[in-house]
Every structure is written in structure tokens, then in C-alpha cells.
Inverse folding.
């Protein structure tokens, strides 16, 4: 067993447990996009970043791929973590601004604008479809191709796959294939239709770490009214 501290609370977990799994055990919310129960962790979207360590040695890691370590100190909602998540969401919005999944993440994390060029891509390279096809459907009909800006997902040699069973699993898990928002104007990149208020405990640098992990935050709901 491994003992660590998450947001000041001690927790003991089995060896091999990820920080994301340990945080969920305690009820601490950590947003994810490329993670799905039943699929191997991939760490592509970076949304699940948390802060580990203290002082100058503190750093951000993806909680879905980082295994718990003895004596590790983790913060899931420090100001540094929240800023990183908002930046990642802005980048995702620039890639696929009409994805309802990404729009909902933006609203939930107080992202009200998108400062990057909109690409209107159909894929954010989260790898969910590839892992679903390989691990759950045992087909391996699709995979990653190319590198860098040329990286994409497709079938081998770009020809019709003989092992694809047209199950639709890849479409089911794809964030870019979900019901889309209507806005595609750069000035209205974030519709904000489901916008939540930001936690008051991290506003105006009152605290460095979030003090309440209730969802929805009771203080936010009171202020909303």
C-alpha cells in the first residue's frame, strides 16, 4: 500500500493506482477528455493535470498516467492547475470550437473567450477512438498516422479496412462527433450557454488552492441566485 496526500487529506491506495483514481476515491473532481474507464490511460488532452511536490520543485503532471508514490503531495485545484486547464481548454476550442463536449468544459471552468486562431478541425487527436477500436472491439481498424502537424487518424494505407465491423464505437466516444454548438464566429467562440461561476475561493488570489470541492459549489450557487 502507498500513502500520499491529496489536497491536504491523507489517502492510502494500492501500488499502481494513478493520481486520478486516488482523487476520485476521495471525491475530488478532475476534468478529463481523453480518459475513459476501461481504456488504457493516454494523457493526450492534458486536462487532468495536477500539481505535485512543494516549493520550487512543484510541477504539473497528468493525473491519469502518473502513479501514486509514497509521501507524494498532490494539489488538484491550485491556481497554477486551474490556469493550465483553462489554457488547454482555449487551445481545444481553437481546434474544434463546435464540439459540445469542449464547449461544456469551457463553461464549467469559466473560460469565456478563446484567443487562438480557430481551425475547425474534425479531430483533436485524443486517441479515444483508436483505443476503443483496439482494446474494446479488438479490431485495430484505425490508428495514428504521421507526426507533428501531419499527425492524423486513419486506416492502414488509407484504404477501406477489412476488419472494421461498422460498430460505431469510435463515433460514440469521439468528443468532436458529439452534438455541436451553433457558434462558429471567432468573436463568439465560447457560447457560454451553460456557464458556471468561478469558485469564489480562488478569485482575486484569496487562496492559492481551492477550498471547497462540492459540485456544484454551494457558495457559487448562492451567489448565482
Amino acid at each position: 500500500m502507498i500513502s500520499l496526500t491529496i489536497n491536504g487529506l491523507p489517502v492510502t491506495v494500492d501500488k499502481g493506482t494513478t493520481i486520478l483514481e486516488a482523487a476520485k476515491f476521495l471525491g475530488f473532481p478532475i476534468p478529463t477528455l481523453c480518459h475513459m474507464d476501461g481504456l488504457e490511460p493516454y494523457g493526450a488532452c492534458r486536462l487532468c493535470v495536477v500539481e505535485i511536490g512543494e516549493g520550487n520543485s512543484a510541477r504539473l503532471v497528468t493525473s491519469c498516467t502518473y502513479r501514486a508514490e509514497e509521501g507524494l503531495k498532490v494539489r488538484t485545484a491550485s491556481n497554477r492547475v486551474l490556469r493550465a486547464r483553462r489554457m488547454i481548454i482555449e487551445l481545444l476550442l481553437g481546434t474544434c470550437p463546435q464540439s459540445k463536449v469542449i464547449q461544456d468544459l469551457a463553461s464549467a471552468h469559466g473560460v469565456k473567450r478563446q484567443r487562438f486562431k480557430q481551425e475547425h478541425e474534425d479531430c483533436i487527436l485524443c486517441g479515444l477512438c483508436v483505443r476503443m477500436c483496439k482494446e474494446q472491439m479488438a479490431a485495430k481498424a484505425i490508428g495514428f498516422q504521421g507526426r507533428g502537424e501531419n499527425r492524423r487518424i486513419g486506416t492502414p494505407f488509407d484504404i477501406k479496412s477489412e476488419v472494421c465491423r461498422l460498430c460505431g464505437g469510435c463515433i460514440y466516444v469521439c468528443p468532436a462527433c458529439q452534438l455541436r454548438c451553433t457558434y462558429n464566429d471567432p468573436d463568439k467562440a465560447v457560447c457560454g450557454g451553460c456557464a458556471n461561476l468561478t469558485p469564489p475561493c480562488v478569485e482575486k488570489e484569496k487562496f492559492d488552492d481551492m477550498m471547497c470541492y462540492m459540485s456544484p459549489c454551494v457558495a457559487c450557487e448562492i451567489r448565482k441566485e
